[in-house]
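Allow me, if you will, to draw on your knowledge of protein folds for a short while. I have a record of one protein: its chain in single-letter code and its fold written as discrete structure tokens. The full record is reproduced below for your convenience:
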Amino acid sequence: MSEKISIKFLGGAGSVTGSKHLISVFGKNILIDCGMFQGLKKLRLLNWEELPFDVSKIDLILLTHGHLDHTGYLPRIVKDGFKGKIMGTSPTLQIAQIILKDSAKIQEEDAERANDGGYSKHKPAVPLYDSDDVENTLKLFNPQHEGQWIQLFDGIKARFNYVGHILGACFIELDLESPTNTKLKTKKLIFSGDIGRENDILLNSPKKPKNADIIFIESTYGDRFHPINSEKELIKIVKKNHDKNGTLIIPSFAVERTQSIMYLLWKLQKDNIIPDTPLYLDSPMGNNVLDVFNKNPYWHKLSFSDSNEMSNNIKYITSLKQTFKLCADKSSKIIIAGSGMGSGGRVLNYFESYLSNKSATILLVGYQAEGTRGRQLMEGIHEIKVHGKYYPVKAKIENLQGLSAHADQKELLNWLGDINNKPEKVFIVHGEPNSSDKLRLKISETYGWNCIVPSLNEVYESDFF
């Protein structure tokens, strides 16, 4: 049995998407996260390539959280032959179920629309995976408790630790102790997943690791700081929208950001700080995730009574017929709709109706990956392609980074601050190149640690001892 550790960066390296880290040690292969590539076409095409590893030889998958860029490739890997357990916290797996079912449905609908419209280069267009593949994936889900050690294999144990970001999200500790040579020291690997905010509206502050030999840390906002007056900016934007009798469209991530925006707008209206403008939620996933919040009170700050009152204050759009009716409504309103980067979902219907409307406002409230419509709008593009047609952008585009669910550079550094030893290696992952490199320099300068920004499909090997 090899006493080496092999690490393969199959995603989440050089980009903020497609997170997959394959750890091979003691004859076992463990995949940390299994995300779908999103954003730029060159990244999306990677989803269709075979992994440079025999999928049937992967023994286990551990999930940091339920977002698509960390779980969205699961049905494909199951379709290609993976048969092991998929472990995560209970809310992570509940959210992953919602997201994967929605992902399959969107892919099936997109393929059907492309075939009917004849605008796909593929004849016929097919989804990456379908609803049957998702059902087969769900059979492999194996929920785990937060904060408790799990013996995975001889010499390998893991623990999920609360890290904020979204409901159920955890950083993963992987402890290794040679089952054949007890004289070798143990090694601890830390996988941050996505790290949440220290003062999130709905979630508690992230727990921090205490020691680590090898660290994998995200770097989504590794090059910047979040503004601290986001609520004041939101108030201004809502009031301006009301004054011009406009429609405010908020593309939102169905998990946690949607609930945070709902809560914030409800609270501001309740306290008479913003006008009592009709508030709509057009996100089937967002509705389902609110149920997950109610089922998992340990994981968040939202009380059951506030959740009920907030839910009663919002109007839910449940069908495409209602969506089209709301698109045609000229009265002032606020619409929260998925998806958060404008890469799919119901928000595209509102883009078609309102992007060319000068009285409308598009409010971006989360990270916008390179190549997405949200990123294009943020960077001032003049026209956007939706469902094969171009629409001129005349609506006001606003961006509130301070409402992001990701830690900024200062919070990322603070998250590392309780580690009481010097790690052998710190891998900077899940970030665009500039962001990752800035965080690399900052960690090296602050702590004196050896930091590496790996490339996609790069392999790192180390002797165990």
